[in-house]
Amino acid sequence: MANIRASIITIGDELLIGQTIDTNSAWIAKQLNTLGIDVTKRIAVGDNEKDITEALNRELTDADLIFLTGGLGPTADDITKPLLCRYFGGKLVINEQVLTHVKDIFTKRNRPFLERNMKQAEVPDNCTVLFNPMGTAPGMLFEKNGKKVISMPGVPFEMMAIMETAVLPMLKENYQSDAIEHTTIITAGEGESFVAEKIQDIESAMPPHIKLAYLPNLGMVKLRLTGKAKDAGSLKAEVDLWMQQIKERLANIVVADGDIAFEQIIGNLLQQKDKTLSLAESCTGGYISHLITQVSGASNYYKGGVVSYLIEVKENLLGVSAEDIANNGAVSETVAIQMAEGVRKQLQSDYALSITGILDKQPVPGENEEPGTIWMAVAGTDKTVARKFKVYYDRVRNKESASIMGMLFLWKFINDKL
Amino acid sequence: MANIRASIITIGDELLIGQTIDTNSAWIAKQLNTLGIDVTKRIAVGDNEKDITEALNRELTDADLIFLTGGLGPTADDITKPLLCRYFGGKLVINEQVLTHVKDIFTKRNRPFLERNMKQAEVPDNCTVLFNPMGTAPGMLFEKNGKKVISMPGVPFEMMAIMETAVLPMLKENYQSDAIEHTTIITAGEGESFVAEKIQDIESAMPPHIKLAYLPNLGMVKLRLTGKAKDAGSLKAEVDLWMQQIKERLANIVVADGDIAFEQIIGNLLQQKDKTLSLAESCTGGYISHLITQVSGASNYYKGGVVSYLIEVKENLLGVSAEDIANNGAVSETVAIQMAEGVRKQLQSDYALSITGILDKQPVPGENEEPGTIWMAVAGTDKTVARKFKVYYDRVRNKESASIMGMLFLWKFINDKL
Known about the structure:
Helix content of chain A is 40%, strand content 25%. The first copy, chain A, has three domains: 170 residues, Molybdenum Cofactor Biosythetic Enzyme, Chain A (3-Layer(aba) Sandwich), CATH 3.40.980.10; 79 residues, Alpha-Beta Plaits (2-Layer Sandwich), CATH 3.30.70; 153 residues, CinA-like (Maf protein). The first copy, chain A, contains 16 helices and 17 strands.
């Protein structure tokens, strides 16, 4: 069967004035991709009839499956439902199952059921209702000339719930697309062009149905191979074989096999070595701790941490010498070392990472180091290693950047690559 | 002058398989919006000539300004530059300024300058080069029939740097668009439909050039008013007047004036009251601390926190009674209270928030509470208040959700609204 082409249309003025970052599209695309369904385009339009209708017209020409999110709420700016109803020539009728569900939600939350909530239970009589277990606005499936249009609310949890319970099972049953295989590795410490140069001959030798992509970001470059074929057959083995060649060539800089977050890389490493970790964060303010605990099962290796934002916390909770802070500044090698060793001792972990630095662009009174300077240390059983790093952007980006550097530093320490 | 219409085209297979969330579009849209330039559409296409060309053809018909990001790197999957060069009928030539800059970057980072990096300095001879201070790929500006096409790298920091230093100043000088005014308030504790019902008469009375939008998420509803007019004149005053009416009507549930993050709301409140905060986080793993420290100047009121991920950390660093943990579980009222009071004492802050809960869907051995249960406490000078909350989703979404709830709980405590 030929490739299925899907388009995603997200609806909402908030997407066009930059008030909301569109996370729905990426999530939907990822799910479709695992079914071998190609998303060929993503479009965001505002809450207005003309733009939504034009996008629908165009995508019904280009694509087989069209996903819409947004504009299904109970308020006046939500115009998607009546628009779709008219577009496909239906009329709105109360759906009893949805009505019961909506009333239930209001009862459970102890909120009055309003006349306008009745409207949430109205659905076009020419669509299949996609039940929304997480909210009041049902999803809708319209079909026309063998094409499917699926409309869902824009609230991410509700959209995800409808996709998981209704849409994905239906797609799995109805579509069999070309086989598609992705495989990704992550490298750290070298730039995109250096990596490309190293594997140039491998890349040139690859067949046209296998494509290599470079995804650079913050000291890391992801390499993704994508293979496509009429049927799965040996496709996975073929893609894996090419990736194997790349991995061998880049052995020194590969930090992960698979498209996984750095916190998962750290988690896997600690689990595998049966070691524990604690953190002492100043400038990153708990962000590394947050990332580490995003991983399910983190309690197997992560003991906890101290966010020593103010100097007194470094002294009182981590036992950093007040004199050393006074003499060297809080952003210094000795303070980083004492923070790491202090938290390691307090929390009795095998490893501890500390980080102290100046993320803002202004100099900090009492600090000798320039803005953008970060001191980190990792303490282990036998030794503690400290290093100085630089970050170049604004506060928020520097925090992200420093956190990735910190995890990479820890990774190298544990792997004896420092 | 008539409204300027802008389109954003983001390029990259990673956007269509869900590997990358598109944050660039929202950022660009926000910047343009402040200049009164309407983004009417956002499109994401893959790394292929046909789809990029079609998107360009279409947007050159629809829009006045077209922003492209992505596909400018030094590797084979980066096809935007030669494509644009051909599209606008130019040829690639070495740009000396860019070449010097690229060589500089490689020297500074102590990396070999490769033949393929030379290509980074090639630019179409029919474009204006937009200097990239943060990376090797320059931005490009093409003009055709009075329309402008601006191409930038997809790496967010590089795109932002080019926008800030080259593009936005140029737009400010060249365009004068219709006046546009946004104003946003944030409400918490009531659903979208309840809020809409409360202000129905105000909404109905608003003139057509002022539009009200509801943006619900996680226990909060943002209300945004957008006014448009040929010239600024009294537009701001008019929009503010309508918002004033809404604010008065919703006085009980308005938590912020302006579209600001909850961590900023907390920050403003603490600054204004000249009080300090500390945190004891278990299940949220440092996420609230991360959010609080995203705000510039957080060191004026945030002392720090303890991420007591394992039970022993609750006991050792926060002084929670081991017996109480054994008897009641770590997710319990008494532990939440002892965590808040413990961290408040240890870090000598005016307020302390604690949070302990079960984010995953599986029951935890030794805990009496069900999965999805969160206990929080706020300790102040005179009293400590604890509350039980429920979250309903998966681990990552529950962490986000619990953190927002935590900040709202703290906000209510400080404002005596509990």
